């Protein structure tokens, strides 16, 4: 059937290998890191693994379709399936969101748990081989057909691996644009939108009586004067809370441990600060500014070689506040599977067809996450278009409407959970909701159930 090579053994790479396996004689994943064999210790997995990562139901379903049993594995290991929007206590510029009945969900757990179970299932497949501590240095072949990769070991040994199909899943620092240029393919259009957000994250052991805290999200209004700030607390396995605080410019959080709780307390509502003030920190504060959105429009290249597909963060990254990257990577891998179910691995046009399918999924997530960010002064390397401005303002209105309208919340959640196309946001009922949303009164207090209120325990901290 042919041979496939996957560059990168992150989530996108593992899922791409699972998608390829039924259609290839063998699949080699080349990964430059030393991939932890069993349960990774902090910092062993990925640079971003200490920050809050939620997996939207659209992504979770795509992973389950590729790796049946993944959801059950995660649940057994302590991952929480949190209903959306009812399981999230969310304060946005529209006020506190009512806890509307759930139609979708997200998976909340550490990145380590999520990745480990995916690795365990994927690498148990005898058709898939992991070559770690080995970096890809170049693509081999020509502008007409990529025929493999040139790799180097840590000891400096270099060799080539031939393949009928090469998948680039090497993440946000992918070198494919340069590697293609070396084969004579240039002019790949790129767009960068800097969120300028700095993330600071820390993991806590929840006090025993406080186990069962809801997922809490607090955000300032976009496009108001002053820095943007947000906080997110998610319950993760083994009774822990993972907390990510984020801010721009002078409102950015720092790595100082004693500044973490005060930052959380001064968000538009102090709930996260109140919770963690009474919890035991288990880690230092980890800071990251790799939060920009970048997109490489491979699908628009005038000439595309046979034998190469780019997916996951290597094709686009998104502001992490929208929680999309892993889910989009999963949807990309599923699109690869569907292409290969129709076209042979090495058939003419397979790579281009897959790349176009991947681009359609990227576009949906990209338009959601960048429409607000593109409007910040100097955020983008190209000025926002009229369409960007209209989309940004409309989504802002919809977010306000979702705080007070069950229908607006349901549709917006369906789209942000990557279970439906953003075109659904243009239904007449959504246009109406966006028009009326601002005039309805949001909730003044967080809509906690009795059980959640007991956890949050406002007794010592009366409502502001
Ligand atoms: C702060 C932060 C918070 C985030 N929060 C969320 C969230 O809540 N929800 C969500 O869905 N997403 C979130 N994301 C995005 C998510 O982390 C990524 O989208 C996801 O991990 C994409 O995976 P990937 O496999 O494409 O890339 P990566 O995870 O970067 O993996 C790429 C792999 O390729 C390897 N590699 C690179 N170059 C080479 C080479 N030349 N040769 C061999 N191997 C190579 C790397 O070592 C790495 O292992 C967040 C990101 C950040 C930064």
Automatic annotation (TrEMBL):
SUPFAM superfamilies the UniProt entry points to: FAD/NAD(P)-binding domain (SSF51905)
InterPro entries: FAD-bd (IPR002938), FAD/NAD-bd_sf (IPR036188)
N-terminal signal peptide: 1-24
Keywords noted in UniProt: Signal
Domain of life from the UniProt record: Bacteria
The FAD-binding domain, residue ranges: 5-343
Molecular function in Gene Ontology: FAD binding
PANTHER family associated with the record: THIAMINE THIAZOLE SYNTHASE
Protein name: FAD-binding domain-containing protein
Species, as recorded: Streptomyces avermitilis
